[in-house]
UniProtKB/TrEMBL annotation:
<protein>
    <submittedName>
        <fullName>NADPH:quinone oxidoreductase</fullName>
    </submittedName>
</protein>
<dbReference type="InterPro" id="IPR020843">
    <property type="entry name" value="ER"/>
</dbReference>
<dbReference type="InterPro" id="IPR036291">
    <property type="entry name" value="NAD(P)-bd_dom_sf"/>
</dbReference>
<dbReference type="GO" id="GO:0016491">
    <property type="term" value="F:oxidoreductase activity"/>
</dbReference>
<dbReference type="Pfam" id="PF08240">
    <property type="entry name" value="ADH_N"/>
</dbReference>
<dbReference type="InterPro" id="IPR051397">
    <property type="entry name" value="Zn-ADH-like_protein"/>
</dbReference>
<dbReference type="InterPro" id="IPR011032">
    <property type="entry name" value="GroES-like_sf"/>
</dbReference>
<dbReference type="InterPro" id="IPR013154">
    <property type="entry name" value="ADH-like_N"/>
</dbReference>
<dbReference type="Pfam" id="PF00107">
    <property type="entry name" value="ADH_zinc_N"/>
</dbReference>
<dbReference type="InterPro" id="IPR013149">
    <property type="entry name" value="ADH-like_C"/>
</dbReference>
<feature type="domain" description="Enoyl reductase (ER)">
    <location>
        <begin position="10"/>
        <end position="319"/>
    </location>
</feature>
Length: 323
């Protein structure tokens, strides 16, 4: 089989599209023929050695795949060969992967493989952030940074399902339109964030901020939070991890809350499974719908990651083996 291999922590050009042995399922695992592998911002950080964790070399990046089960490890009774599933796993940029059966979810009939990938990390992260971490309530104001990205679109759609008022933040006219299409009630840019949010909320500020950007955008949020607000720290797409003046949280009485979806899925597997059931239900009734910007050959992973890290992508991107 072919896979995208990281053999050293280095620039994206060092990724190697190579022929390697297909992994075989161990006890409790399934082997999956990949139909689509989702691309996520952290993938590009991981191969450069810039992420929170560093897997042993060599490895294939990629954390979400959708495809068809081709083989079962010992003890697997929840699936059969031929079932279509989606899962979070390691080594996703490959034609074949193995995954724990317990972390696989059956895809609803007719579900697009790229859509299914978006449900895992992008929608999974946004759902966990707003549900378990922020406890977002109907009638509250939610500010979504990076609103044209896969997680931002998910946050806007889920925020509307919950009944929040959504203020989306995006950097270009094209991205602002994507945010409007996702259901945002108001859309603004990154200039004058504090004044814009204060104006749109009648001076109250934001109840919840969904921050995947960091840097100056985070700094602005620390100054427009409402009392009892929740500032969600999800990522640092700006490339800058900000410093937080804790006196602001004291004076304004709001909370800064970390969101690490990967930890959540392992620490609270039952809640993770329930979240996925809820997301698939929303997908089935049309309440959520990922924006798939493009489907690209697996061999072009390095070029795709460059666009994602450069914040040039919108929505979700999928890599397609054999295309």
């Amino acid at each position: 089989m072919h896979a995208v291999m990281c053999r050293e922590f280095a620039g994206l050009d060092k990724l190697d599209y190579a022929e390697v042995d297909a992994p075989q399922p161990k006890d409790g695992e399934v082997q999956i023929r990949v139909e689509a592998a989702g691309v996520n911002y952290p993938d590009g950080l991981l191969v450069q050695g810039l992420y929170q964790v560093k897997p042993p070399l060599p490895f294939a990046p990629g954390s979400e795949v959708a495809g068809t089960i081709e083989a079962l490890g010992a003890g697997v009774t929840s699936f059969k060969i031929g079932d279509r599933v989606v899962t979070a796993c390691s080594g996703g940029y490959a034609e074949v992967v193995v995954a724990e059966a317990a972390r696989c979810f059956a895809m609803p009939d007719g579900m697009d493989a790229a859509d299914a990938c978006a449900m895992i990390v992008a929608y999974g992260t946004s759902h966990h952030a707003l549900k378990q971490r922020a406890n977002l309530q109907a009638g509250e104001t939610l500010v979504v940074y990076g609103a044209a990205g896969a997680t931002g679109i998910a946050a806007a759609q889920i925020g509307k399902i919950i009944g929040a008022r959504v203020i989306a933040v995006a950097s270009t006219d094209e991205k602002k339109q994507i945010a409007r299409d996702a259901g945002a009630d108001a859309v603004i840019g990154y200039d004058n964030l504090k004044d814009e949010v204060k104006s749109l909320t009648g001076g109250k500020g934001a109840d919840v901020v969904f921050d995947v950007v960091g840097g100056d955008a985070f700094n602005a949020a620390t100054r427009f939070m409402a009392r009892n607000g929740r500032l969600l720290v999800i990522g640092f797409a700006s490339g800058e991890i900000p410093k937080f003046p804790v006196n602001l949280a004291l004076v304004k009485e709001y909370a800064v809350i970390g969101v690490f979806w990967g930890n959540f899925t392992h620490a609270q597997p039952e809640d993770y499974a329930e979240n996925m059931r809820e997301l698939f239900g929303w997908y089935h009734d049309g309440s959520v719908k990922p924006l798939i910007e493009g489907r690209y050959p697996l061999s072009t992973a390095a070029e795709v990651l460059k666009r994602v890290l450069g914040r040039g992508a919108v929505g979700k991107i999928a890599l397609i083996p054999g295309s």
